[in-house]
Amino acid sequence: MTKQEALPLRISFAVLVLGALLIQLILIPQAGDSYAGRFPEAAYLAFPYTIAIAVGFIGFELALLAAWQLVSTAVTERSLNSRSIRWTNLIAGSLEFMAAVFAGVCAHALFWTKFGAPAVLFGFVVSLGLIPVILAVRHGIRGWLENVADEGIPQ
Hints:
The chain is an all-alpha fold.
């Protein structure tokens, strides 16, 4: 991968990190306060749910950092090696952590507190569905990286 090919990826990663930080630090706490005001019977859940969702976003940000490092490895070393596969595993693990946290929050709202709505059920199903999808994508990317590493990267 050349530096010219890596630049748009890095810009995209930076924009995604900034967006995730904006969501994590501003929008999620505002949404928690808004829902606590609209549903006073569940207001005690606003703070723990806000913290859990914010922690889940750390998984997304860590995945973006690992993707940045994967691109950097491809640019500097001009080859893909076991470090690349480790970065791919970190991306998948971080995204799975995020999906598991989101599924846990939705499951708690649905099954423990019984405050869930159709949107919460949808979030629960999507979060659980992401876990095998992330594993399948990681497996495919890992196989592709191993094939590319064996054949070498064209320059």
